[in-house]
Amino acid sequence: MDIGRTLPADVTQSVLLDDLVAFKALSEALFAISGDAIVHIDQQGVIARWNASTEALLGISDERAIGSDARTIIGDGVTAIFNTPNDGLSHPLRLMTNPTGRAPLPLSAVVVALQHGDRRDGWLVTLAPHRRYEEIEQLKNELIGGVSHEFKTPLATIKAYAATLRSDARLDPQEQAEYLSIIEGQADRLERFVDDILLVSRVNAAQLLKRRVSVAFDDILDRALAAVAQRISHRVERDTAGVTLNGDPERLVDIFLHVLDNAFKFSPAGGLVKITAEEREGNSIVHIRDEGIGIAEEHVPFIFDRFYRVEQSLTAPSGGSGLGLFIVHSLVRAHGGTIGLHSEPGNGTTFSITLPVRS
Fold this sequence. Notes:
Number of strands: 12
CATH topology of the largest domain: Heat Shock Protein 90
Oligomer: single chain
Strand order of the largest sheet: 2-1-5-4-3
CATH class of the largest domain: Alpha Beta
Number of helices: 11
């Protein structure tokens, strides 16, 4: 519908004015709430907007910045911003700020030239310390490295054993069954890794808990132990009768599956894994202790970080993506609980999980 042809001119002008006011209020709100440092520089090179995140990053108030020449406030590196092409695309830049009275600060910037028809309306710039982008790049490299390794190792095993089954007619039925079991185990490993990646994506999107109900801890524990039963050779002791958990049953299984898998993985075959649980002061408290290699003190602060692995070699026999304990920590927090650990190298590790009995 052509509003200009169907409504009186004064009404049309009022509608357009209302739209303009609403858009301006929206843009101001976006500037205000953004966690990124955002700067709007007009076509004259003067700072038109300067949000709180930019003030925090550069230590310069909006009162001083707005209305000032961008070269004076941000530094001579602004010249690179002014040379941004008028193609409507975002352009990454490396800037060095050097405002008077402040130490130079290397920044990474993303710039978009604002264009209205043939007229340039200035530039919109986001700023961040350059190290932030280096950290993002490092995380991306770690993700690619971790994912590549977790896929490459089992795929190589599957390929080798499948080729042997196809080419060697001398294999007896027992050997064939053994090779097929190895292939199945490696396929299961791939499936678990894909499941972990998908769960991490839900962690990032805060889509963790579908429901919360009261459930017996023994039921959760039975399901977690059953999931790892075929790949363990440990003794398990449990003192958990009568303890109730409150939460999403599927995610509770994920919590204890990963903690138990970690205990079995780093414990010698035949070693003892002891599980105890109690209810105290409105909380369910679970302790899982192993007799494994333990964790050195310098690793403890990072043990719940994404992709962090105590064993530095990617060829460590225990394998693992470094996602399990990150998932555990995220799920425990989503349930309103806490997790901690006590460990001594060579003397095993105890994980302690506290969850509220009621949501």
